[in-house]
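Same chain as my last thread, 391 residues:
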Amino acid sequence: MNKMQFAKRLQPLKSNVFADMDVAKAKALAAGRQLIDLSLGSADLPPENHVIEAIAQSLHDHSTHGYLLFHGTQEFRQAAASWYEQKFGISIDPETEVLPLIGSQEGTAHLPLAVLNPGDFALLLDPGYPSHAGGVYLASGQIYTMPLKSENDFLPVFADIPDQVLAASRMMVLSYPHNPTSAIAPLSFFQSAVAFCQQHNLVLVHDFPYVDLVFGDTPVPSVLQADPEKSVSIEFFTFSKSYNMGGFRIGYAIGNAELILALRQIKAVIDFNQYKGILNGAIAALTGDQTVVKTGVERFRQRRDAFINALHRIGWHVPTPQATMYVWAKLPEPWADKSIDFCTQLVEKTGVAASPGAGFGKSGEGYVRFALVHEPPILETAVERIGEFLR
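reply #2:
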C-alpha cells in the first residue's frame, strides 16, 4: 500500500510542546499524583448568570436554530461597536468594521490567508501565541520573529528587522497585554508601530484578549487609538477572558473595512457563524453590568499576589505582572535553558503542570509560564511542591 502524501504546510505544525505536556500530565495522573494544572490559560471562573440566561432563553426560540448568516449578526455587531466606542472613544461602523469570530484565534489563524501570498513574510512576536505562527504556515507564508527581551520591556525593536525581510513582509502581529510574558505596551508604542506599518505597507494585526485583565489603574490602549482612521489596523477581541466564555467560542474582529471584508470572504468558505443563542449571550455580556469584569480582575489580582509571594518565600524571585492571568518566570539554575525538561519533570514528580517557555518560541527558552487558574490556597500548595522539587 502506498504511503499517504500530505501537504508540506503540515510539517511545521507537527511539533507541539503542549501535546508533549499532555503526555507528561497523563503520566502524573497514572502514577497517582494529584494534578494542579497551571499550564492552560482557560479561566476557571463561570460566566455571569445574565449571560447564561440569555443563551438559555434562546434555546426555546426556534428562529435561532437555523444557519446564521452575516445579516443575522447585526445586533451583535452593533453591541460590539458601541462597547468599543464607550471604552476607547473610537467611532466604529458595525456594518463594515466588525466581524463575529469563533474566538479571536479564528481571526489570527485565518487572516494570513487573506493577506499573504506564498513566500511572503509575517513579523511575529517571539515568544508569542502559537496560533499566530500556525496561521502563517497554513497560508504558506514565512515567519520573521521579533525577539522580546526583558531589557526592552518585552517590546520588539522594529529597527532590528532586516531590510530584505521588510521588503517581502505583508503583516505584523502584536498582542499586548502579552501572552506569555504579561508585558503591557503604552500608546506611544502602538503609535510607532502604526507609523512603521504605514511606512512599509504592512497590515497591523493586534490580538487583544487581555484588554480587561489589567491590575493597575491605567487602562491599556487599543491599537485603534493609535490608528483612529483604521488605515492599516485590525484588532481581535475574545469573550474568553473578560467574560469567562472560553468554551462558547465567541469573539470578533474590528478595524479596517477592507481587512474585515477580506476576512469575511475567507470565513464564508470555512463556516457560517455560531449558534445565534451564543451571540445573544455575548450581547448580554457587552451590554450588562460591567462591574462583574472588575470583580473577576480582582480575583486574579489576589491570585497573582498569593502566587508571587509564595514564590518569593521559596527563594524564586519573579517580577509582579501588571496584566494577564500569567506569571512569566525566569528559570533558576540548573534549568536555565531546559524549560521543557523542567516542566515535564515537575509535573511527573509533583503533579504541578506549567507551560515551558520554549513552547512559545525560541526567545521563550529559559522561562516558564504559570496560569493563575486556581484559588490562592491551591496556588500556594503548588508553589510548596515546586519548592520541594527545586530542592
